[in-house]
Amino acid sequence: MNANWRSCLLAGTAVVLSCGGAAANDELLKLQKDPNQWVMPTGDYANQRYSTLSQINKDNVKNLRPAWTFSTGVLRGHEGAPLVIGNVMYVHSPFPNNVYALDLNNNGQIIWKYEPKQDPNVIPVMCCDTVNRGVAFGDGKIILNQADTNVVALDAKTGKEVWKALNGDPKKGETMTSAPMVVKDKVIVGISGGEFGVPGHVTAYNLSDGKMAWRAMSVGPDDQIKVDPEKTTEMGKPIGKDSSLKTWQGDQWKTGGGTTWGWYSYDPQLNLIYYGTGNPSTWNPVQRPGDNKWSMTIFARDPDTGMAKWVYQMTPHDEWDYDGVNEMILADIPVRGQQTKALVHFDRNGFGYTLNRETGALLVAEKYDPSVNWATKVDMTTGRPEVVKQYSTHAGGEDKNTQNICPAALGTKDQQPAAFSPKTGHFYVPTNQVCMDYEPFKVSYTAGQPYVGATLSMYPPQGKNNLGNFIAWDAGTGKIVWSNAEPFSVWSGALATAGDIVFYGTLEGYLKAVDAATGKELYKFKTPSGIIGNVMTYVHNGKQQIAVLSGVGGWAGIGMAAGLTKETDGLGAVGAYKALSNYTQLGGVLTVFSLPD
Amino acid sequence: MNANWRSCLLAGTAVVLSCGGAAANDELLKLQKDPNQWVMPTGDYANQRYSTLSQINKDNVKNLRPAWTFSTGVLRGHEGAPLVIGNVMYVHSPFPNNVYALDLNNNGQIIWKYEPKQDPNVIPVMCCDTVNRGVAFGDGKIILNQADTNVVALDAKTGKEVWKALNGDPKKGETMTSAPMVVKDKVIVGISGGEFGVPGHVTAYNLSDGKMAWRAMSVGPDDQIKVDPEKTTEMGKPIGKDSSLKTWQGDQWKTGGGTTWGWYSYDPQLNLIYYGTGNPSTWNPVQRPGDNKWSMTIFARDPDTGMAKWVYQMTPHDEWDYDGVNEMILADIPVRGQQTKALVHFDRNGFGYTLNRETGALLVAEKYDPSVNWATKVDMTTGRPEVVKQYSTHAGGEDKNTQNICPAALGTKDQQPAAFSPKTGHFYVPTNQVCMDYEPFKVSYTAGQPYVGATLSMYPPQGKNNLGNFIAWDAGTGKIVWSNAEPFSVWSGALATAGDIVFYGTLEGYLKAVDAATGKELYKFKTPSGIIGNVMTYVHNGKQQIAVLSGVGGWAGIGMAAGLTKETDGLGAVGAYKALSNYTQLGGVLTVFSLPD
To answer: Per-residue pLDDT averaged across A555-575, rounded?
Structure first.
């Protein structure tokens, strides 16, 4: 079977045609180059979230207007973005993780829907809202990560279940929020639950039948974490034997966190997948001495075998919940003047990292928000941050409240993905501008119970009253190009286009378009609810469309989403974002925009 | 205090200014003549839902586009419409009946919100979704009818509670879904619960302090129903003593229904309010012999005293649940060639009635849907319908299934209000085209338990596959002018404007604009969810705006709203409307439209 999905699809009408068991890698590689479609949540394997479409551009974007809308029927936080394949759009919702196939030829009429029945007991073990970041497509299947850790493959034509794989156990606090990624003949998925002591892992399931192909843990023995002590490197050097185990006290690694709930990327030429691992558990650093490897780490792995080629730990012995899960954007750019196969990563810890994605060499590590104060800099030889003792939550010991740490636990950026424009060479980063007080306390592990061990309060940096910025970043030099202040964190994912514009959403609910070169605001529209979804684009009937989910929630909006009112609830977010409810209410609506005829 | 609210309001900026204890009648009379505002759910006292605005007209309406949107944070059916007073919009939601004051100068930012805590046990006693049809305004207050029968007056500036009056008891099945109406110094409210044996009443509360001024029952002794046996007339004749009591067996009137949950209207010159009463309880006609007066009746009452001037019972001894609650539209029109102070009423029973609103004289009674078959005609001398025995559910007796009765229980029209254009002279009526099988069964009364006593199935008329039409009607002759077929019932309220267009929403979620003269579709937009709200219009910053709530539900959408699946559930609606979930999902979003700059 010739694996040209695009031509298969174009042969169909409203409904996706099955083209048989094609090699998904070839299909997806081709499909993601077609700007008329949006075949993966990240836009492409490189996570660039860039479209070559320019029908909507900086001159005419002021005329943009909603073309049609669709309520998912679910409230709470709507992260992620729909897919468009042919004339069908696939829209997902937060728990209960409904999936709708919508007919683009008919204003989004429902072709099929998948409404899984899940045990609602999974909700209390989802730390930061009942979010889901979207579905993947490959080989005629739509792949869904359910909150209850069922990975489900649906027939893209009919919505019928093709296979199902159980990836974890919610009774242990294991849940799923991230989107799967299809690479070659496999589906790559992560796991959530860092606040419940869940040991992180990445798992590959066969795209054809859902059988597990491999699983690589984040922490633990070398065979479980799939490293070769001699060949797997960090900062250019072999990591050696028991690289993870020896950085933990006793058996603590078994509940050690390092969950894997961020976005994944893939370099087909290097045949490497990239992702980051989350915080070590518990959040009380006093309780778990050591570097806690490989939490807070960028992994580069072979998708066929799962073996790690290189690693880089950004925040050894995390004391602030600076999860390293944020996406890796792959781009070939000049770095310090030299053309480089770069990997660019905006970490929760407030540093923007540029690495050589082939070797894992650290090239740039600079603060992408001036308020970042927990570390002065990253030592470019060791790769370690130089921690400021005043802001070390470990240094004060348990039950000591360390104040004015910037950024807060939800980082200078969290899950909200950045975009890259090859046209401008800039990265466009939705950021948080939030600081915190952090008080660690002793906690003991019970499966399925919160294993947080810290009380937090969050607020803007001193002298500021805005909780976020949307910035353009030069990853070759580590400098902010421009920065737009936003009243709240920008918790939505960005989209850059060849129309010289960048789109993002705001927590108050605005979809905004700004000039890619200057950041000047060119358009805004108030969608029904706060936006924490990611902007995407496609073409239908010759017209470029822009789509985004609104539905306030996520960690920043957890107070509204879960109805919490105590300021330190929501792991400290409730207090910081309490004013949000003056701007928007809960929702769950897709808005599709285009230019007037 | 000079009671010119409009000038008071215009003196303010975003926030309504208090102008003291003015006479609300004068205020409202003036305010409702200002097309820039929309000060009552019905548009005006006459219930015409007509605007003299013409900036948006039949030539440019094709360019209409959403200007901003607002999610109410609540799912399920959103009936009613927001108010606009000055630069503030007041938006309500279904249970829990949140009210939001939105700043029109700032894309709907929330000025205040009122989020009542109500016992969720009221939900199961709401027969036909947890709807609410909107708030009223008068004397600086926003009046809300809560589901739990609390009538609440809020300070329009601050949202703070001014007074609260308890109008019923949900434990007896008494709930509130309708909008209050402010007349002079009183707030007029009804009661819901006809499916629970609730005896209907209309109650006037003092606008100033919430104290009850009068209450008029629908059924019962003369003093309770506030009639004068000599002066209150039907068909021009005094109704006589015990006009209600003698049409009931024994004490059945005490649980006799005749609830009052429709729209109210008012003629300031005649000083009469008009409203209709609902079905007699139970739905099993065999169980309650007699005419069951004054269920199914149009009442004309003095708003100062509550006394009835005239009555007209449309469906004596109801056998089909043809509630008479649908709105009375007051219009001065030629009837059979003679200029008339008319009252026009599109009844659930499928007849469009034109009466002299001063005398209650019946002038026209014609079918406004050709499928209506339960009666051949209305006898213009007696005012009684000529029932076709084949479709009498009483005639077959209990446990006999009578088939193919048209219309179904939800009528040729239900709560969805019609509009009238003085410019065309036509009435624009959102209709249902649904028939039913009806099987009465014996039921005994228990307070707070369903007292329905009939099993129903619903479906389109034979040979048809569409469940609704949107029609233009000549009330002077009783003829359909034009009729647009719609796939589902048109459960949304219409708006007619001087732009020669009529707006309405569809259950799939389209806001539509059609040519007032011909019905030709000029514009449609797919809102997030099915529309059962009413379209309204106002002006902001010199631009005409059109607004409508989407959020599928109501009786027609009860299957989706309440998650029911058995075909006869939802009093028969679930089966008829089951295809609706292929078009839309639950939502709760206000969409505001305007022309591009």
So the answer is: 94
The model's pLDDT over A502-539, given as tens digits with 9 standing for 90+, comes to: 999 999 999 999 999 999 999 999 999 999 999 999 99
d(CA B67, CA A59): 20
Chain A partners within 8 Å of B100 (Cβ): 585
DSSP A427-452: EEEEEE--EEEEEE------TTS---
Catalytic residue among B129, B185, B222, B321: B321
Q: For residue B28, report the phi and psi dihedrals to the nearest 5 degrees.
A: -65, -35
Closest-CA residue in chain A for B549?
A: A528
Chain A positions with Cβ closer than 8 Å to B: 63, 65-66, 68-73, 75, 100, 107-110, 113, 508-510, 525-529, 550-551, 581-591, 596
The distance of A106 to chain B (nearest Cα, Å) reads: 10
Which of A552, A582, A589 best probes binding to B when mutated, by most B CB atoms within 10 angstroms? A589
- Measured in angstroms, the CA of A490 and the nearest CA of chain B are apart by 18
Q: Which two tokens stand for residue B212?
A: 């009850």
Q: Residue B103 corresponds to which tokens in the numbers above?
A: 């700043």
Q: Which residue does chain B place closest to A580, by CA atoms?
A: B110
What is the C-alpha separation between A25 and B548, in angstroms, rounded? 46
| pLDDT score, position A10 | 40
Distance separating alpha carbons of residues B259 and B193, to the nearest angstrom: 7
Whether residue A157 has pLDDT greater than 60: yes
Among candidate residues A396, A350, A397, the one with its CA nearest the CA of residue A374: A350
User: Looking at residue B446, what DSSP letter applies?
Assistant: -
Nearest chain A residue (CA) to B508: A109
Which among A129, A148, A321, A414 is annotated as catalytic? A321
Is the predicted pLDDT of residue A20 greater than 70, yes or no? no
Active site residue A321: yes
DSSP letters of A363-409? EEEEESSTT--SEEEE-TTT--EEE-GGG-TTTT-TT--EEEESS-T
Interchain pair A109, B75: CB under 8 A: no
CB contact under 8 Å between B596 and A65, yes or no, is yes
Residue spans of chain B under pLDDT 50: 1-22
Distance from CA of B93 to the nearest CA of A (A): 12
Let me know: does B107 contact B68? Beta carbons within 8 Å: yes
Which whole-number Å values give the CA distances from B212 to A26, B104, B209, B305, in the listed order? 75, 35, 9, 12
Q: What is the pLDDT of residues B488-518, one digit of tens each?
A: 999 999 999 999 999 999 999 999 999 999 9
* pLDDT of B543: 98
CA-closest candidate to residue A258, choices A227, A293, A287: A293
Between β-strands A328-335 and A308-313, what pairing exists: parallel, antiparallel or unpaired?
A: unpaired
Query: Cβ–Cβ contacts within 10 Å for residue A465, how many?
Result: 11
For residue B576, give the H/E element and its range.
helix B573-576
